[in-house]
What does this fold into?
Amino acid sequence: MSLWVDKYRPTSLSKLDYHKEQAAQLRNLVQCGDFPHLLVYGPSGGGKKSRIMCLLRELYGAGVEKLRMEHQTLVAPSKKKIEINTIASNYHLEVNARQGGRSVLFHLLFHCFTSYFIFFFIASHLISSSFSLLHILFHLLFHCFTYFVSTVMLETRTRVVIQELIKTVAQSQQIQSSTQREFKVVLLTEVDRLTKDAQHALRRTMEKYTATCRLILCSTSTSKVIGPIRSRCLAIRVPLPSTEEVCSVLTAVCKKEGLLLPPELAKQISERSGRNLRKALLMCEACRVQQYPFSADQEIPVADWVIYLRETANAIVSQQSPQRLLEVRARLYELLTHCIPPDVIMKGLLTELLNNCDGQLKTEVAHLAAYYEHRLQLGNKAIYHLEAFVARFMAMYKKFMEDGLDGMMF
Amino acid sequence: MDEYDELFEIEDKFEDQFADELEVLAAMEEDESFKPSKRQKRGQGDDISDIEHLLDEPTTPKTKRQRQEAGVAKRLFDPGQRKAPQQSYDITPPSSPEQYDLFDTARPVRSVMDISGLATIPETPSRAPTAAPPSQHVLKRPPLEGDYITVTDSSGNRVYLRQKEDAGTKVASSRIVPDSFGALGLLTVPIGVLREQEIKRRHDQLVEESERLTELLTGSVNDVIVEPESIEDLEDIEGQMSRLWVDRFSPRHYTELLSDDFTNRCLLKWLKLWDGVVFGRERKSHPARFDRQAAGQNTSKPNHTNQNPNRFKTKVEMTEEILEAELDQYKRPKFKVALLSGPPGLGKTTLAHIIAKQAGYNVVEINASDDRSAEVFQKRIDTATQMKSVLGVNEKPNCLIIDEIDGAPTAAINILLAALNRKDGHSGEATETMKKKKKKESILLRPIICICNDLYVPALRPLRQQAFLLTFPQTQPSRLSQRLTEISLLHGMKADTGALMSLCEKTDNDIRACINTLQFLYGRGLKQVDVRTIQSVSVGQKDQNKGLFHLWQEIFQLPRTKRKRIGEGFEEAPGSGSGSQRFHHVFHLASSSGEYEKVSQGLYDNYLSMRIRDPNLQSVCEALEWLSFSDRLNQEILHCQNFSLMRYLPFLSVTFHFLFAHTHVPRITYPHSQHEAFSRLNSSRNALSTMLSDIPACIRTRTSQQILALDMLPLLLDILCPKLRPVNPQLFSSREKEQMHELVDTMLAYNLSYRQDRTPEGQYTYILEPRVEEVVRYPSLPPRRQLTYQAKQTISREMEQEKMRRAEQLILQRNPAGTLIQKQEEKKNRGSKLTSNHQQRLENIVKQTTVEARPEVDFFGRAITPKPRREQLSSDRGEKCPSLLMGKAVGNSDVWFRFNEGMSNAVRRNVYIRELL
It folds into this structure.
């Protein structure tokens, strides 16, 4: 727990550093007892998860935070063993049912602990089959109390799993009503990774079992959450902190560390991090490791992939030819194999390319990017769509430049 | 005349090369001589003579020619005996050879030329039937009396011909007539002139023949002929229309084979090599024949012995050389199996059957339709090779033909190999092998011919090394079309050569497919076949996979400019011509290949390295548009199981063809990139997930792979590289110590550690484990600051300590009671033993100094054996008092020193890490 990000993470709603009004509203929400489904969304690094955890703590008390690791093996009906890594506290257990890095099938988390609660964390990387579903359902039926299903990296392709699982969770009666809350909370993170089918499966379930079950959905944007689900949830946007807020958090952290952070540097860091608080804190710590005492014009470390992406964009702008496209393809492959998601690449490319574009070209390029990003979501092979975008941009840019030259000539 | 020389050359080689072939031809000749009579009978009796009439006309000239050729071939062996079998059925030694001899003697130049005539000479003395008359004229030594002429043949044998006697006999036969007539004055031309004329005539004849022979060599020996007899046979047997043309017109004889001559000849030759072992006396390979000539065997077939021994080493074909060179101890050829390979429909099976039949074998065939499990296979091989049919007419040795062997299981092929390599203990003479035959495990004495399409099937690998490999080349379209013409003519179909040629091309010279297509067309009532019908007919096209590279090549390469045109719109390459034709061609290829995924990958990997014509990248954009379209199609197909969309996939190839096809030969590489990218992505994902798996839960909930890869790791690795003074960690300032502590803490929290590794150069390095550095670092960027080896070493040591500390803490937390008890016990022990450290030491010293004479006490004061131990104990007690006294004396004083005499008095004790740290 020595990284500043982890060390100084707020644990209760009252301790949150920014968007305090929202925090107050959340507290009211908990206190009034009528807790709706939530859809928490906002860009990465804005503190969604922290806020949700604070909320849960507000709901269930400090026990939510004591976590430990556990390992379990499940035997699928096909006699196949599934190794599951679980994270557990006295109140919940997180099961990571990823199958040892092979064709990822399940991230199914479940847990039962005291006689009071059963918390389910589902982190599923489901692609096709749901063969271990039955087995898991048995477990579910045996001990049903309060469920806490968190789908970490839920990329499930099977609507069936979501449907059945949540249905079973929700259908089961709460045996002991002396618990703090009479409803169960299901936390689904990265809902935007859910397939449309799975989301559709979710919507009826949500409605049917509102009496016993609440969902907290967590995603980076609502655009990939289907309308029916959005309308069923209370949407809570967690925006990024402003530059000033980031600066104040940074200075506060440095003060706790006993360091002196010049405000210029703090500002620079917050700008460079794109107001992503996680990133900003990490950058600040990296700066401290590089050089202390801080100087105002210190070099701020940036992730390699950002630099690489920038260079790629420069390569695209500097020359437009099939050969260059081939080079760019190699670079795109490089980025993809370093676990950079294709939509991040697309976005990064667009921002870098826009810097090099004239006003009228900007809209067209942005339109192109949007078009191909959509294709990217529909398709499977990211490289085709990325390259298509690059080629299109090249063609457009080249034409634009040539027209410009002609204009110069006359 | 150099023509002459050439002629000889050819003839010499010809004899060597074509011996077997010629023999077969000769045999056929003999057969044929019987046939006309048969045919006559039939021709009279049959009522289908109208058809026959129609059929006969075009074919007869050819048969004539064929016969002539055969005749030529035969004459070459022994011109003297040629006529005998043709004219009269009883083979009697003719009287003519003497005449030849005479001419030879008269004109030495001609004697060299007339090889066949001369070849008899050296052998004649020892030969039974013809030996008697010539032995009088041909002498090995110069005759004692009378004139003689010496003749040397090309192998260096010198013989002497008695001139006078020759003249005498010659005169005896020919002079009688002229004499008598001369006396009568009927002979207008003098005998000398007549003789000259005769010589000239013969000479001309010979030249003509030899010319025809060369023709025969260069041209098609086995040219298409349709034997009227065979057709009659067919008409006789006649399941008529119910029979496939392929079967009806399958070749009956060696000469009718359409396949490549060289291949035919090689196989025949190989089969003939078995003669020695199968038929015993009949025939042996060339070197063996050499010997036999001297021994004077083989009286039954004189024309073989007439052959010249191979005086000149032929360089023609290595395969042939191999074939001729080696026979093993059982007189079997070196390779016991012939393996024919080639694409379907070229007549491999037919060739094998015909050659085996022709060589006098009874054909036993095993093919894919039979059960080919190991046991059955074993049984069948044994039956075929070890046994012989005693009943019935075909009392011939068996020849095993294993068809479609590439589909046979490996076990079966192993059995075949075992059969090949079976060995007898003793070196085999003929009699011995006969004995062995009765044993169960006897050697293979029958030829086996294997046939396959794909030579490189893994199961065939061991067999390949032991087999005589023959690959079938494509049939020549000219020959095939000729045959097709004949067939179509037989059925009254009009087909021009152009149409048939295009049919050949369409089917890739597949004989079977060609004839089937023809029959199909005939069956539909078509009486006229032209190019257009052929091209419009979709029959005859094989749906065979040509391989991905071929497909890519077809896509990226424009067809070569139209080939020579013979007719209107004829002979267009399938992919050439108008756009729609190319469209259909590529579309057909792409949809028949079926591997859309691979195909599109190959297109994607290669299209940018093609010559792209437009500078505005429009075609590239369009291509990518199509790629992304097909990607979405694929996704839809896989996701929704909507397989009806599959039909749209091959259009991608068509688009690429029209966008990027170029006349240049494309350089196509196999698409590795996507697979490579996939595996690398997997490895970096694995690194991340191993890292994630052991991160403590409280941090784990806040991170995911994506967050780790995008935000955390790049900066985390920077944070992990603080500036450390290169000194002993003990000397760190408190601030530095704190920093170090934090560093170790972070690394433990994120499940990172340094592992010592050895580079291939032998240097030691510390690398971060799990290997997340590879996930974060990019190749072309400047490397980040790295810690020094020493720093890493220090850190890893610190980490180890920290880990141990935590582990112990954990244990303490888990059972605090147990450890407490332990501690108390320890304390008790200590308390009971001694009060202070130096006193303990002192006591020891005192002991040692006082009781130095004691034997057999080990370092800790314990004895090695139980017996001395008791003694020791007793002695301990006994001497305790003085020692203690002394000890007290020493210990009581405040000042003491100790002299260490080269020994350490270490004490075993429990030491805990926390005491040291």
